[in-house]
Every structure is written in C-alpha cells, then in structure tokens.
Amino acid sequence: MDQQKEAPRAFNREMYHDEPENVFYGTDDGAQDGSFAEFKQFEDHYNNVDPQRREDIHMISVVGGMYGLNMLPLWKPTRITIFDINPAAVSYFKIVRRNFINSDSADEFLQHLADGDYAVENEQEEFIRENIRLKSRDELPRSRGSSKRSFEQSWKIALDNFALTKQLLTDVPLEIRTEPMESASFSQYIKQQNNLWIYASNITQFHFFNLELDDPSNVVILQIIHPEKPQLLDLAPMGGKPVKLNVEIPLSAQYLNEAATVGA
C-alpha cells in the first residue's frame, strides 16, 4: 500500500489541534436527513458476531460531534476511552457527560443544555457552556464553534435509550485522553489490547496513518466518511497474529511483514 498518499483534507488538519472555536456542536456523520439509516449496518454486525465477543467490549471513540454517544447503547461496553486532539472538544464531552448523568430524562438533559443552568470548572468550560446554550437556541455564530445538526438529531439513538446510555456513562470505567489517534502514545495504548471497538468518525479525511495490533481477535473499527456510506472493518478473522491497521480511506489491514490485505 502506498503510505505516501495524503488524506483529502490533510492541508487543514492542524486547525483542530487546539482551537476552542473549532468544536463540533452536533454531528453530520451518517445519513444527512437525520434518519440514522446507516445504523442498521452497525446493529446487524453487532448482533451477528459471536456472543462472547460482546461480553467485554472496550469502546474507544473520538469526541468530534459525539456521534459516538449513539454507539454506547448498541455496543454496551465494559470500558470506555474518549479521546480528541482538541482540549476544548474534551471539555465539551465532559460537560455533556455530566449533564447526562445529572438528568432524569432526555428532555431534562436537553433543557439543561439549553438553559446553561449547571456549574463549570474553568474558563474553557464556561466558553463551551455558552456555546452549547447558543447552539440549543440556533444562535451559535461560526466565530465561536461549528454548528451541525441539532443535539436531538445528532444523538437520537443515545437519547431514545436514555436510561441505558446514562447508566453506561455513570458506571462504566472511563478514560479520557487528549491526544491524536496517530500519536505514538495512542498507538502504544491500544497495541496489546484485543477487545477494541473503535469509532473514528472522519479522522481519515485529515490524516492517514498506521496502527499496530498484537492480536486483533476482537477488534472492530468504524468510520463514516461519506454520508450513508460507513466503513466497518472487523479484524477478528485476522486474530492470532500481529496486524498493521491502515487507517485510511478505505480502511484496510494486513499481517505484519506479509503482503495480503483485508479491507472494509
């Protein structure tokens, strides 16, 4: 595989590294009409894997617009890692999680976001809180943040399964990492794990890279690059040997030091 090629939008990938005004309030991942038509593919895959593979899922998700919230009630992980290169995006996730946990219903959760009636821990969170409030009222200027679909449309699956999503956000061990997926630290973090189900959103729009896995016997990676055309790569058939995962468009993987490649 030609590893010299660049991602389609590699020219502006650094705009998200530490820019508070480049947080995505809502997501445009998946079907653009908000129907979640793409979600059936994810459900079918989950329901058809060996049941033992579903018993101990470590879900890893980029923050982005938090489409990954919708994967929680489907994948039902026993461990969660959330990451993003942008510290403001991490603050955004923390605020959403706290309000989810502290609400008794989806309507109450959305009302808290709209009212901004909750405590924040620092100036960055104060900036994010006001952006969330403005977004909820369709008043967010582009100078403060990127406004995508409404929260109701962005997190429909999570909100429709509010009690389960809340329970998972409350009880499941959570690790938050402020780092890019292509970093050496992230690579080392996942290398020896073999129960990873990863939601990568559209990271490969901005950067192509490789990750190594010692044994991908229960590793799944999902990205949504084009509307309604998700790419889900299940590496279980390659289990038992070290694998190089090519995080590109499309996703693919190959055994280390071997030429054969498996693609999404």
Walkthrough of the structure:
30% of the residues lie in helices and 20% in strands. With 264 residues, it is α/β, with parallel strands linked by helices. The longest helix is centred in the middle third of the chain and has 15 residues.
Highlighted features:
264 residues; alpha/beta; six-stranded mixed sheet
What topology does this entry show?
Elements: E1 24-25, H1 39-48, E2 58-62, H2 72-75, E3 79-83, H3 87-101, H4 106-115, H5 123-136, E4 146-147, H6 151-154, H7 156-160, H8 162-171, E5 174-177, H9 184-191, E6 196-199, E7 209-213, E8 220-226, E9 229-234, E10 243-247, E11 252-255, E12 261-263
Parallel strand pairs: 1-4, 2-3, 2-6, 3-5, 6-8
Antiparallel strand pairs: 7-10, 8-9, 10-11, 11-12
